[in-house]
Design brief:
alpha/beta, three-stranded mixed beta sheet, 19% helix
Length: 170
């Protein structure tokens, strides 16, 4: 069975797949779903970008996309990894940022602006700030540079004393 020629939109199907590490976000909301197109031969080509080099969730994302598109009737699906331009937290949608906060995870601020070329080595500590997603206070502290995943830091609110994760700006 092939969904080619039907009213099923492969982009809409791919857009429902959630991130395995942040399941409140779709890959589209996270900004890793770069392109979905159907070739002349009916093959659905999906392009995704990892949030960082070596992201362990890429295999699961690929498998989940294949499963969702096959379940929707698309027989031929190819998932490609696209590395350029590199993913940025600025690609997280407004809806994705809202969903992160609703799940108790502080969304990232604006990503740092860097000139093109090699990333300079910074030996000093990274200073990040994040408002508490639970009470809104800006008086928070970093407990650990890494949370449950490498792209999140663990913080605590000094006002309500609750811990929370913060998606780091990349």
């Amino acid at each position: 069975m092939s969904a080619v020629g039907t009213a099923v939109d492969p982009r809409a199907v791919a857009g429902t797949v959630t991130d395995p590490e942040l399941p409140m976000l779709t890959l589209a909301d996270l900004g890793v779903l770069r392109d979905v197109r159907t070739g002349d031969d009916g093959t659905v080509v999906v392009e995704i970008t990892p949030t960082y080099t070596g992201c362990p969730a890429m295999g699961v994302m690929r498998a989940d996309l294949l499963h969702a598109l096959h379940a929707a009737g698309f027989d031929r699906v190819e998932v490609r990894t696209v590395l350029s331009p590199a993913w940025s937290t600025d690609w997280i949608s407004a809806e994705g940022r809202r969903r992160l906060a609703a799940a108790g995870i502080a969304p990232p601020g604006a990503a740092p602006v860097r000139p093109a070329g090699p990333v300079p080595l910074q030996l000093g500590p990274t200073r990040r700030t994040a408002s508490c997603p639970l009470c809104g206070s800006a008086d928070t502290e970093e407990l650990s540079e890494f949370g449950a995943t490498a792209c999140k830091a663990l913080r605590r609110c000094r006002s309500c004393r609750e811990p929370f994760e913060h998606v780091k700006e990349i």
